[in-house]
Amino acid sequence: MPEIAVWGWALLVLGAVIIGVSKTALPGAGTVAVAIFAAVLPPKQSTGTILLLLILADLFAITAYRRHVNWKALLRLAPAVVVGLAIGIWFLAVATDELVGRVIGVLLLAVVAFTLARRWMRRGTEDSGPHVVAATGYGVLGGFTTMVANAAGPVMSMYFLAARFPVKEFLGTAAWFFFLVNISKVPFSIGLGLITAPGLLVDLVLAPVVVAATFLGRWIANRLDQAVFERIVIALTLVGAAYLILA
Question: Which InterPro entries does the entry link to (predicted)?
Protein backbone atom coordinates (compact mmCIF):
# COMPACT_ATOMS: atom_id res chain seq x y z
CA MET A 1 0.00 0.00 0.00
CA PRO A 2 1.47 3.42 -0.93
CA GLU A 3 2.15 5.87 1.88
CA ILE A 4 -0.72 8.38 1.84
CA ALA A 5 -1.47 10.90 4.58
CA VAL A 6 -4.84 10.98 6.30
CA TRP A 7 -5.86 14.10 4.39
CA GLY A 8 -4.86 12.33 1.18
CA TRP A 9 -7.16 9.39 1.95
CA ALA A 10 -9.97 11.81 2.76
CA LEU A 11 -9.56 13.43 -0.65
CA LEU A 12 -9.42 10.05 -2.40
CA VAL A 13 -12.66 9.00 -0.68
CA LEU A 14 -14.25 12.24 -1.86
CA GLY A 15 -12.98 11.53 -5.38
CA ALA A 16 -14.45 8.02 -5.23
CA VAL A 17 -17.85 9.44 -4.23
CA ILE A 18 -17.69 11.88 -7.15
CA ILE A 19 -16.85 9.04 -9.56
CA GLY A 20 -19.88 7.03 -8.51
CA VAL A 21 -22.29 9.97 -8.56
CA SER A 22 -20.95 11.26 -11.89
CA LYS A 23 -21.66 7.95 -13.60
CA THR A 24 -25.28 7.67 -12.48
CA ALA A 25 -26.40 11.29 -12.06
CA LEU A 26 -23.99 14.12 -12.90
CA PRO A 27 -21.86 13.43 -16.01
CA GLY A 28 -18.91 15.78 -16.29
CA ALA A 29 -18.26 15.79 -12.54
CA GLY A 30 -15.67 13.05 -13.08
CA THR A 31 -13.16 15.71 -14.12
CA VAL A 32 -13.12 16.92 -10.51
CA ALA A 33 -12.24 13.38 -9.39
CA VAL A 34 -9.41 13.29 -11.96
CA ALA A 35 -8.02 16.47 -10.41
CA ILE A 36 -8.25 15.06 -6.88
CA PHE A 37 -6.49 11.81 -7.72
CA ALA A 38 -3.73 13.66 -9.59
CA ALA A 39 -3.19 15.89 -6.55
CA VAL A 40 -2.78 12.97 -4.13
CA LEU A 41 -1.08 10.26 -6.22
CA PRO A 42 1.84 10.40 -8.67
CA PRO A 43 0.37 11.65 -11.99
CA LYS A 44 0.89 8.49 -14.01
CA GLN A 45 -0.25 6.20 -11.21
CA SER A 46 -3.34 8.35 -10.68
CA THR A 47 -4.39 7.84 -14.31
CA GLY A 48 -4.33 4.06 -14.06
CA THR A 49 -5.82 3.99 -10.57
CA ILE A 50 -8.82 6.13 -11.47
CA LEU A 51 -9.38 4.24 -14.73
CA LEU A 52 -10.21 1.00 -12.89
CA LEU A 53 -12.58 2.82 -10.52
CA LEU A 54 -14.29 4.43 -13.50
CA ILE A 55 -14.84 1.01 -15.06
CA LEU A 56 -16.32 -0.27 -11.80
CA ALA A 57 -18.75 2.66 -11.72
CA ASP A 58 -19.51 2.10 -15.42
CA LEU A 59 -20.65 -1.45 -14.66
CA PHE A 60 -23.23 -0.21 -12.17
CA ALA A 61 -24.30 2.61 -14.47
CA ILE A 62 -24.96 0.36 -17.49
CA THR A 63 -26.95 -1.96 -15.21
CA ALA A 64 -29.01 0.87 -13.76
CA TYR A 65 -29.82 2.41 -17.16
CA ARG A 66 -29.78 -0.68 -19.37
CA ARG A 67 -33.21 0.20 -20.81
CA HIS A 68 -32.22 3.77 -21.68
CA VAL A 69 -29.54 3.52 -24.38
CA ASN A 70 -29.43 5.16 -27.80
CA TRP A 71 -27.38 2.62 -29.72
CA LYS A 72 -27.61 4.58 -32.99
CA ALA A 73 -25.81 7.48 -31.33
CA LEU A 74 -23.05 5.18 -30.06
CA LEU A 75 -22.54 3.55 -33.46
CA ARG A 76 -22.37 6.99 -35.08
CA LEU A 77 -19.60 7.98 -32.66
CA ALA A 78 -17.49 4.79 -32.82
CA PRO A 79 -15.23 5.47 -35.86
CA ALA A 80 -14.42 9.02 -34.74
CA VAL A 81 -13.62 7.89 -31.20
CA VAL A 82 -11.09 5.35 -32.50
CA VAL A 83 -9.39 8.15 -34.46
CA GLY A 84 -9.38 10.34 -31.35
CA LEU A 85 -7.80 7.58 -29.26
CA ALA A 86 -5.02 7.17 -31.83
CA ILE A 87 -4.36 10.92 -31.88
CA GLY A 88 -4.32 10.93 -28.07
CA ILE A 89 -1.69 8.16 -27.94
CA TRP A 90 0.51 10.12 -30.37
CA PHE A 91 -0.02 13.38 -28.47
CA LEU A 92 0.97 11.78 -25.16
CA ALA A 93 4.27 10.76 -26.72
CA VAL A 94 5.23 14.29 -27.84
CA ALA A 95 3.51 16.79 -25.50
CA THR A 96 4.20 17.92 -21.94
CA ASP A 97 1.64 17.43 -19.15
CA GLU A 98 1.02 21.19 -18.98
CA LEU A 99 0.34 21.45 -22.71
CA VAL A 100 -2.02 18.47 -22.64
CA GLY A 101 -4.17 20.02 -19.91
CA ARG A 102 -4.35 23.44 -21.49
CA VAL A 103 -5.18 22.12 -24.94
CA ILE A 104 -8.02 20.00 -23.58
CA GLY A 105 -9.33 22.89 -21.47
CA VAL A 106 -9.44 25.27 -24.42
CA LEU A 107 -11.16 22.65 -26.55
CA LEU A 108 -13.78 22.11 -23.85
CA LEU A 109 -14.57 25.82 -23.73
CA ALA A 110 -14.94 25.80 -27.50
CA VAL A 111 -17.30 22.83 -27.29
CA VAL A 112 -19.48 24.55 -24.68
CA ALA A 113 -19.63 27.75 -26.76
CA PHE A 114 -20.52 25.79 -29.90
CA THR A 115 -23.28 23.81 -28.16
CA LEU A 116 -24.87 26.87 -26.56
CA ALA A 117 -24.65 28.85 -29.81
CA ARG A 118 -26.54 26.10 -31.65
CA ARG A 119 -29.27 26.21 -29.03
CA TRP A 120 -29.60 29.95 -28.98
CA MET A 121 -29.82 30.05 -32.77
CA ARG A 122 -32.37 27.20 -32.68
CA ARG A 123 -30.27 24.99 -34.87
CA GLY A 124 -30.28 22.07 -32.43
CA THR A 125 -31.02 18.57 -33.63
CA GLU A 126 -33.80 16.17 -32.71
CA ASP A 127 -33.55 13.22 -30.32
CA SER A 128 -31.85 11.12 -32.99
CA GLY A 129 -28.70 13.09 -32.24
CA PRO A 130 -26.43 15.59 -33.99
CA HIS A 131 -25.64 15.04 -37.66
CA VAL A 132 -22.62 13.08 -38.82
CA VAL A 133 -20.26 16.10 -38.92
CA ALA A 134 -21.02 16.99 -35.29
CA ALA A 135 -20.76 13.34 -34.25
CA THR A 136 -17.35 13.13 -35.91
CA GLY A 137 -16.08 16.24 -34.16
CA TYR A 138 -17.33 15.26 -30.72
CA GLY A 139 -16.19 11.66 -31.21
CA VAL A 140 -12.61 12.57 -32.16
CA LEU A 141 -12.37 15.06 -29.29
CA GLY A 142 -13.91 12.58 -26.85
CA GLY A 143 -11.47 9.82 -27.83
CA PHE A 144 -8.56 12.23 -27.62
CA THR A 145 -9.43 13.63 -24.19
CA THR A 146 -10.21 10.27 -22.62
CA MET A 147 -6.87 8.85 -23.75
CA VAL A 148 -4.71 11.72 -22.54
CA ALA A 149 -6.48 12.71 -19.32
CA ASN A 150 -9.56 10.58 -18.55
CA ALA A 151 -11.39 13.85 -19.23
CA ALA A 152 -13.89 12.97 -21.94
CA GLY A 153 -16.85 13.36 -19.59
CA PRO A 154 -17.43 17.06 -20.29
CA VAL A 155 -16.92 16.59 -24.05
CA MET A 156 -19.42 13.78 -24.40
CA SER A 157 -21.83 15.53 -22.05
CA MET A 158 -21.94 18.37 -24.55
CA TYR A 159 -22.60 15.91 -27.38
CA PHE A 160 -25.51 14.23 -25.60
CA LEU A 161 -26.78 17.64 -24.48
CA ALA A 162 -26.77 18.84 -28.10
CA ALA A 163 -28.75 15.71 -29.00
CA ARG A 164 -31.38 16.78 -26.44
CA PHE A 165 -31.52 13.36 -24.78
CA PRO A 166 -33.85 12.99 -21.76
CA VAL A 167 -32.02 12.55 -18.46
CA LYS A 168 -32.10 8.74 -18.30
CA GLU A 169 -31.33 8.24 -22.00
CA PHE A 170 -28.45 10.70 -21.58
CA LEU A 171 -27.09 8.74 -18.61
CA GLY A 172 -27.63 5.29 -20.17
CA THR A 173 -25.99 6.18 -23.48
CA ALA A 174 -23.09 7.91 -21.73
CA ALA A 175 -22.65 4.91 -19.42
CA TRP A 176 -22.25 2.47 -22.29
CA PHE A 177 -20.00 4.87 -24.20
CA PHE A 178 -17.55 5.23 -21.31
CA PHE A 179 -17.67 1.57 -20.36
CA LEU A 180 -16.63 0.49 -23.86
CA VAL A 181 -14.00 3.21 -24.20
CA ASN A 182 -12.51 2.64 -20.74
CA ILE A 183 -12.26 -1.12 -21.27
CA SER A 184 -10.42 -0.50 -24.55
CA LYS A 185 -7.89 1.70 -22.69
CA VAL A 186 -6.85 -0.98 -20.19
CA PRO A 187 -4.26 -2.76 -22.42
CA PHE A 188 -2.65 0.58 -23.33
CA SER A 189 -2.58 1.65 -19.67
CA ILE A 190 -0.90 -1.62 -18.65
CA GLY A 191 1.61 -1.30 -21.48
CA LEU A 192 2.45 2.28 -20.50
CA GLY A 193 2.88 1.30 -16.85
CA LEU A 194 -0.08 3.40 -15.68
CA ILE A 195 -1.76 0.50 -13.83
CA THR A 196 0.46 -0.50 -10.91
CA ALA A 197 0.29 -2.84 -7.90
CA PRO A 198 0.10 0.06 -5.38
CA GLY A 199 -2.66 1.59 -7.47
CA LEU A 200 -4.62 -1.67 -7.39
CA LEU A 201 -4.43 -1.69 -3.58
CA VAL A 202 -5.81 1.84 -3.47
CA ASP A 203 -8.62 0.72 -5.78
CA LEU A 204 -9.52 -2.15 -3.45
CA VAL A 205 -9.93 0.28 -0.56
CA LEU A 206 -12.00 2.76 -2.57
CA ALA A 207 -14.16 0.30 -4.55
CA PRO A 208 -16.93 0.02 -1.89
CA VAL A 209 -17.17 3.83 -1.78
CA VAL A 210 -17.61 4.01 -5.56
CA VAL A 211 -20.33 1.34 -5.49
CA ALA A 212 -22.26 3.09 -2.72
CA ALA A 213 -21.98 6.42 -4.57
CA THR A 214 -23.51 4.94 -7.75
CA PHE A 215 -26.69 4.21 -5.77
CA LEU A 216 -26.63 7.74 -4.36
CA GLY A 217 -26.34 9.04 -7.91
CA ARG A 218 -29.30 6.94 -9.04
CA TRP A 219 -31.38 8.45 -6.24
CA ILE A 220 -30.37 11.95 -7.32
CA ALA A 221 -31.08 11.27 -11.02
CA ASN A 222 -34.63 10.16 -10.30
CA ARG A 223 -35.31 13.59 -8.80
CA LEU A 224 -33.57 15.83 -11.32
CA ASP A 225 -35.61 18.12 -13.54
CA GLN A 226 -34.47 18.15 -17.21
CA ALA A 227 -33.67 21.87 -17.24
CA VAL A 228 -31.77 21.70 -13.94
CA PHE A 229 -29.89 18.63 -15.19
CA GLU A 230 -28.76 20.46 -18.34
CA ARG A 231 -27.59 23.51 -16.38
CA ILE A 232 -25.58 21.29 -14.03
CA VAL A 233 -23.96 19.51 -16.99
CA ILE A 234 -22.90 22.82 -18.54
CA ALA A 235 -21.62 24.18 -15.20
CA LEU A 236 -19.55 21.05 -14.52
CA THR A 237 -18.11 21.20 -18.03
CA LEU A 238 -16.98 24.78 -17.47
CA VAL A 239 -15.42 23.83 -14.12
CA GLY A 240 -13.56 20.96 -15.78
CA ALA A 241 -12.31 23.20 -18.56
CA ALA A 242 -11.12 25.86 -16.11
CA TYR A 243 -9.24 23.29 -14.03
CA LEU A 244 -7.45 21.86 -17.07
CA ILE A 245 -6.41 25.31 -18.28
CA LEU A 246 -5.24 26.64 -14.91
CA ALA A 247 -3.76 23.46 -13.34
Answer: TM_pro_TauE-like, TSUP
**Model confidence pLDDT, tens digit, residues 66-106:** 888 888 888 888 899 889 888 887 887 777 766 766 776 67
Residue of 241, 234, 170, 240 whose CA lies nearest to 30? 240
**pLDDT tens string 39-62:** 788 766 788 899 999 999 999 999
DSSP state for residue 151 in the 8-state scheme: -
Q: Which of 237, 162, 222 is nearest to 24 (CA)?
A: 222
**Cα dihedral 43, 171, 142, 86 sign:** positive
CA dist., res. 61 & res. 220, Å (int): 13
- The pair phi, psi for residue 193, each rounded to 5°, is 75, 25
Three-state SS for 163?
coil
Burial class (CB in 10 A: 0-12, 13-18, 19+), 79: middle
